[in-house]
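Board notes (copied after class):
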Amino acid sequence: MEFRMTRQSLDIKGIGKSFGGDDVLKGIDISVRAGEFISLVGMSGCGKSTLLRIIAGLERPDRGQIMIGETDVTGMDPSDRNLAMVFQSYALYPHMTVRDNIATPLRMRKLSLSARMPLVGRLTASAEALKDIDASVIEAAETLQIAHLLDRKPAQLSGGQRQRVALARALVRSPAAFLMDEPLSNLDAKLRAHMRDELANLHRRLGATFVYVTHDQVEAMTMSNRIALMSEGRIEQLGTPSDLYQRPANLTVARFIGSPAINLIPVEIASNGAIGAYGRDLGIAAARSQAGQVATLGIRAEDLVPASHGLQMQIERIEMHGADRYVHASLIADASHQVTIRLAASEALPAGDDGILTVGFRADRTHLFAADGQRMADPSRRELVA
């Protein structure tokens, strides 16, 4: 049985929020399409959880507007927004069964106060209402594959099962959108990976609108249609996971996205556009309009390649990761500067007996950043003078 959803778009317009004179959110604009999975990602303190709480109605913005579909909900109470929130702590009632935990939102919405009372509730509640609630609970439980757990209590469940119960409790309301605040952070690494798959599959099956907060870039990269990377109350870049990885808008995005972290090398741009580092020509060129600038070259571990020309590096250690091999090295010209190279485990490592390796760059996969950290025009390949 598949749960039926009503999905809505979500528009965040110019949201600002201050606490004690500190601007926590500095004019956030995001349009979330109906049925989209969007992640808010960034370091702790960047404002992502505050933004989620404002969307939910748990915090009021100092300025800006929240639209759900065509409805302005900025001033509405949380209960009137038809949004479901899934918390990091699960927030399950320990004295209730799984069935009752899932049913609670529907009972609060559909039953009178007397009908919600223990013991006498079943006697005063409408039989039709109770039947509808039970049917919805079973449908949600089957969708999350926890129907066999309905008579257990939270203490009898694993962490992953508790998280599914929390999701089912949100799902049973048929919300306009799901808001999730780091829901997997309490799980161990193996279970987190499994639950990432389950959440992504659930989103595909339901076609629901998901807004997901996390500091874990792997979660954001593997599940999202788009990512909003936040820093110091601003959105640094909004785009697909591929956009943020392959074309980071600035150094903040480049440093945050990617594992292992991007290699960053200080470079100088000569009068003819040639890019060099530590006195060596790297075989790539910037636009002539950028001549004379000091910049930072970003290069992913997989885009550093053994070459006859380039930078010389001293191999420090090698890590085997199944089909991949990570080579950690320091620059000969600056031993304090570390770089990481990713090679296929089957690929030869043309280093001398002294462990010195020369590496070049794939020109079409390099990233150039100005002194202010913003992305510059992409470098191009050029012929090296022998």
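Comment from the instructor: The mean pLDDT is 88. The radius of gyration is 26 Å.
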